[in-house]
Amino acid sequence: MCNDVKVITEVIKVDKVYSFLISPIVSVDDKSAVFNAVRDYLEKVLLDFLCVVMENRRFPLLLAIFEQFFVLVKQYKKRFDVEITSPYLLSKKEVSGIIDVLKTKYGTVENIINNVNPEILGGFIVRVGFNVIDVSLNNYLQNLSEISKITICSVG
After folding, report:
1. Which helix (H) or strand (E) holds 108?
2. N or C: which terminal CB in the chain sees fewer CB atoms within 10 Å?
3. Contacts from 119-123 at CB under 8 Å and sequence distance 24+?
4. Which residues form a coiled coil (predicted)?
5. Bridge partners for 122 per DSSP
6. Where are the domains of the chain?
């Protein structure tokens, strides 16, 4: 089914196809006819889903729905994307060390993005989905500053 969804996603991204499918002028029957013409090549569940989306006039949301579908498939298969932010471009050995630690908790890495942000001073910030692991020097100094303020306020 994932391959079918990928194909449908690519077809929908074509401007003329997308315009046709979201047009309020084109009837739902005409839109459904497009997918019925290729029904032998799609899984029935996917075809039924597409028809429901069109009947409910939610087609403009379909790309976002499919995007979330692929996120859930990745999670199910224990595959993830990693975004690492550091003050300099990390070496392959450094990235490999970080990834080895993450594999035990999250699974298989699909994509690695290494961003450079000199403002974090040292260390790194790792993002895996909505999870953030911040071991940057900047974060450490901010935490130290907060603790100092609390300590000073409690003494005074």
Report:
1. strand 108-116
2. C
3. 119/87, 120/85, 120/86, 120/87, 121/87, 122/87, 123/86, 123/87
4. none
5. none
6. 2-73, 78-155
